[in-house]
Amino acid sequence: MTASGMALALRPVAASAPQPGAIPPVPTAAAVPAAWRNWSGIAQCQPAAWAVPRSEEELVTLLRQSPAPLRAVGAGHSFTALVPTEGTLLSIDALSGLSAHAAQPAPTATLQAGTRLATVSRLLDGVGLALRNAPDIDAQTLAGALATATHGTGADLPALHADVQSLRLVAPTGQILSCSAQDNAEVFHAARVSLGALGVVTEMTLRVRPRHVLQRRVWLMPVDSLLRDLDTLARKHRQFECYLLPHTGYGAVIVHDEHPGPPQPVPHVSADEDVLRDLRRLRDWLGYAPSLRRWVAQRLIDPAQTEQRTDWSYRLLSTQRPTRFNETEGHVPRANGPACLRAVLDYLEQRNDVYFPVEFRYVAQDDAWLSPFYERDSCSIAVHAAHDEPWDYLVKDVGALFRRHGARPHWGKLHDRSAQELRTLYPRWNDFDRVRRHLDPQGRMLNAYLRPWFERSNAS
Hints:
The chain is α+β, with helices and mostly antiparallel strands. The chain has 14 helices and 20 strands.
């Protein structure tokens, strides 16, 4: 382990290449059906058929005629079982690209729903535009990111779905709906975070902004000082997040602020994988002796190390994650964020097997019905475990801490919330389900994972 490796950012500057293994192979419609698995391998299925529609018209036919359950699949970066089906997997990878854009009166961009987020950023950059905010992984399809309420960080910045101005949805009946806050408004409020339960979104228009330069700074802080200053840092910077390093006594602070000058791109090699390897070695060598593990870590970490980068926003905000993991994430009311983070870290440090950093972010409220941030400014806490190691404690124990602090689950991350809990946590759950039953009266979009959440209403 090197001191500089421990002190460098836990997130790379650029995401210029696809994540290895992040995008599952998509067979052609004529191919023998192939098995599917998600990025971490925790979710998998053997569908009866794969379908790769090349147009909205072809999608209409597929939704009407293909074996159910019908599930759309993107990059496979969700850890929950949203995708697996014994029926038909629908890949919308072919529905990709920038359809239109406008700079006035307010910048907007119309994109096909199968466009990967990394491609979205580059297409927008090519016409002088950028997303207002970006999630920390950019391998997902745009539609998949919206369906699971994927988000970035920023106390005044909402999740990606909040910037959707309008969308097109193909219902399981084959009906095509154009939706906005003015037209088919209830479907619009439901479809921005839909879990893939309403049909398939094919296109959306996003509020965007002119391309802009950010300055990224990274430094280390003692955990106690960092926990005390969380809200201050979030108010001070456009985008703030941190990663707590279990069994070290340190956390890494990452901030992004707008920069008036030009970008200053330089070659950069991320230290993320080195950091993870070093943290894992510490665990493997000294996990039996937590006090010694912390003592060694604090002597190998150089707290004076910092990093500063200045570049176009999309080159700084998104990440690559070669190391596979499983993950849970809770979105707690903002006032509960620091206390929940402390509780999570205290619990993890009672376990000698953990080594992944704990991610903490801020997300502004929005009004999408199944958004975890519905009418609630939130703090997001994400906890990871290596894909080849036990992860049940993420759901059982960390999940209990999330419950205690009022968390709503991230739809793409591991959790065990019941239908009754979800109805309580999401004030517009019944409204969403009413729209769902109208669009999919036969429940063709419901797989075994989703059905228990909605089966009571289907039977009524």
